[in-house]
Write a structure and sequence with these properties.
Radius of gyration: 19 Å
Shape: globular
CATH superfamily of the largest domain: ATPase, nucleotide binding domain
Distance between the termini: 10 Å
Number of strands: 12
Strand content: 15-25%
CATH topology of the largest domain: Nucleotidyltransferase, domain 5
Order of helices and strands: EEEHEEEHEHEEEHHHHEHHEH
Bound molecules: zinc ion
């Protein structure tokens, strides 16, 4: 029966997929990485295997599924563009999900919008700008508890806000997008340049913890870029709070205070900067947002 059973949330990311299944009695989570090949057929098989593995250890029925997706989908649920995994263009995602969950309602939503909803709910704030920093930069705006721009009108793409028109190229084809300055890979590239040798995530964390100049300078630029985008959005929608999350940000406690400092410096007289908070759900905001979509609702064909 579709209206009962556990809720399954799936967060489809650029490098990995997180799953969480829960009901009134318990919860299970799992994560798998996409195959290195970037072949969409291998990705499809990996998704099938990841779902099958979770359902093997969860012996109760699944009643509803919510999926957080970074890709743009058309009305039929086909991927129109995903710069993070370009091979997915044209993939029939809705068809794949129907195949995986033939008798269960499945709803998809933009991962940034869903993360913003989940974080706004956890923070108890009605008007929120959420920015997720990971493989890319995503985010969402929630006003009065609803995502902006709203159903059927596309998603909030804060990562593609142009903050410097002569800035570095973005994988969307434009120059100077926030994502081109502040994504995890962009930050690590800058860190490597400043350090004069390759720098991975752990080395950046270590460099920040031990006060290395190259690490601090690399993150300072990321914080400044985020604050520049945030002040622009703030001038338009006046959020009560700005929440910074995403997998890359989750392990860097220096990032939120950095954004806060830059944002304060950008505030205008009479228009104080909104508070900047770390995401409460850490790297799991989109996954919990996907679970919000999986709330069982009576199906149209219910007896
Ligand atoms: Zn862009």
């Amino acid at each position: 029966m579709s209206g009962s059973g556990a809720r399954l949330g799936i967060d489809i990311g650029g490098t990995k997929v997180a799953l969480r299944i829960e009901d009134g009695h318990g919860a299970r989570e799992s994560v798998f990485r996409w195959p290195a090949s970037a072949d969409p057929r291998a990705d499809r098989d990996a998704l099938r295997a990841g779902v099958a593995e979770l359902r093997r250890v969860w012996d109760r029925p699944v009643g509803a599924v919510g999926v957080a997706v970074p890709a743009a989908l058309d009305a039929a649920g086909r991927v129109t563009a995903w710069p993070g995994r370009p091979g997915w263009a044209g993939l029939d995602l809705r068809g794949l999900l129907r195949e995986l969950f033939p008798a269960v309602p499945v709803r998809c939503g933009d991962d940034g919008d869903l993360a913003a909803l989940a974080e706004a709910g956890h923070a108890g704030v009605r008007h929120v700008l959420y920015v997720g920093v990971g493989t890319g930069v995503g985010g969402g705006i929630v006003l009065d508890g609803a995502p902006v721009p709203g159903p059927g009108r596309g998603s909030c793409e804060v990562g593609h806000l142009v903050i410097d028109r002569s800035g570095p190229p973005c994988d969307c084809g434009r120059r100077g997008c926030l994502q081109a300055f502040a994504s995890g890979p962009a930050t690590l590239r800058r860190a490597a340049r400043l350090r004069g040798e390759p720098a991975g995530y752990d080395e950046l964390r270590e460099g920040l913890a031990t006060g290395r100049i190259w690490a601090r300078a690399a993150l300072r630029e990321t914080s400044a870029a985020l604050a520049t985008a945030v002040i622009g959005v703030t001038e338009l929608v006046r959020p009560d709070a700005v929440i910074i999350g995403g997998g890359f940000a989750a392990g860097l406690p220096e990032l939120v205070p950095g954004v806060r400092d830059h944002l304060r410096a950008l505030a205008r007289p009479g228009f104080p900067a909104p508070p900047v908070l770390p995401a409460r759900l850490g790297a799991l905001s989109s996954l919990h947002g996907a679970l919000l979509l999986a709330k069982p609702t009576p199906p149209a064909d219910a007896p």
